[in-house]
Design goal:
Length: 347
């Protein structure tokens, strides 16, 4: 364990000798990254096996632990450090909604099918079981909360149904107990695009186009209308018109293709579609957060989840122009709801 005190400065005070000075209290830190071998039986395999889990822990030493997991693009670097920014720095860090002066944030890199040996797929159950096994290895009996967004919310729901004694509260943002059939259909097309690119020796192009298609579901019709109001422009070199949407989608696709491999994308995309949890099996007090404009996880799914949840559940609905990606954009609204949940306000 790496424990160190945050630095602080005391300014000279003319009254220092006459009265007691109020000094900042140094915060002991527990900032670690590691790899730990855990053992569990994957859902789509015949037996238990050892699995290597890559994890990161950031926050105040000895403070309660909050598991934080994001979408399939997220990794264990939830909180930024000297080596780079975190994917959720807006909400996780010192003084933020998930305050690392009050909590320790634990996150893992998502397991892929290849991490599970001969397993036929990687399930949200597997991610949840890996996290539970990791807690045991780290000597953590129960976490203060599990905060999950998108795929992370699905894993959080699986965790709450399979390991209810290991978490006091669940916050599930833009994720439900099952994948919606229309979303499954669109992801199926994305996977076929990636496989087609792979067969033709251009995996990057397949990933690029799959991400562009995904962006049309992640964001709302309102945002597309606002962003892409410019008229199309004819390009004589290409001999066709270019539309305003192309630049935005092209940039998103290229960025994704640089960061992902085909095998990772195919495994995690399929994992989303294989996800299924009986709401009645969720036995942890739950805060659900949905968006009016989310076309990936329709509000009707969250209403059904709340109604059938096996523990107390509150559903909060955010009106946002950002669709499914609102958890990455609506910092004030999402942060306030997370803060209330961590302070045990609400369900």
């Amino acid at each position: 364990m790496s424990l160190h005190a945050a630095s602080f400065t005391v300014e000279p005070d003319s009254h220092f000798l006459a009265s007691a000075a109020v000094l900042p209290v140094p915060v002991l830190r527990d900032d670690r990254r590691g790899e730990t071998v855990v053992r569990f039986a994957p859902k789509y395999a015949d037996d238990a096996r050892d699995v290597r889990v890559r994890w990161a822990l950031h926050g105040a030493a000895y403070a309660p632990v909050v598991i934080v997991q994001g979408g399939i693009s997220a990794d264990r670097r939830t909180v930024g450090d000297a080596d780079g920014a975190g994917w959720w720095d807006a909400l996780a860090g010192a003084g933020r909604a998930i305050d690392t002066d009050r909590f320790r944030v634990l996150s893992i890199d998502w397991l892929e099918r290849a991490d599970l040996g001969d397993a036929l797929a990687v399930a949200t159950n597997d991610q949840a079981d890996a996290l539970a096994a990791l807690l045991t290895e780290l000597g953590i009996d129960c976490v203060h909360a599990f905060v999950g967004a998108s795929y992370g919310a699905m894993v959080g729901l699986a965790f709450a149904s399979r390991h209810p004694a290991r978490a006091r509260r669940l916050v599930a943002i833009a994720g439900a107990h099952r994948a919606h059939p229309l979303s499954i259909a669109i992801r199926n097309v994305q996977r076929e695009v990636v496989r087609l690119g792979d067969r033709h020796g251009d995996t990057a192009a397949g990933l690029d186009l799959a991400r562009r298609l995904a962006m049309t579901t992640y964001r709302s019709a309102v945002e597309f209308a606002e962003r892409c109001a410019d008229a199309p422009v004819f390009d004589a070199d290409d001999d066709h018109h270019h539309f305003a949407e192309e630049g935005w989608l092209k940039a998103a696709g290229a960025n994704f293709a640089q960061r992902f491999t085909a095998t990772r994308f195919l495994a995690l995309s399929e994992s989303i579609d294989l996800h299924g949890v009986r709401p009645e099996d969720i036995r942890v007090p739950t805060t659900l957060i949905g968006m009016t404009s989310d076309r990936v996880v329709p509000l009707a799914e969250l209403c059904d989840l709340q109604r059938r949840c096996g523990a107390s559940a509150a559903l909060h609905v955010i009106d946002s122009r950002y669709g499914h990606d609102a958890f990455l954009k609506e910092d004030a609204q999402i942060g306030a709801l997370i803060g209330d949940a961590l302070d045990n306000k609400g369900a």
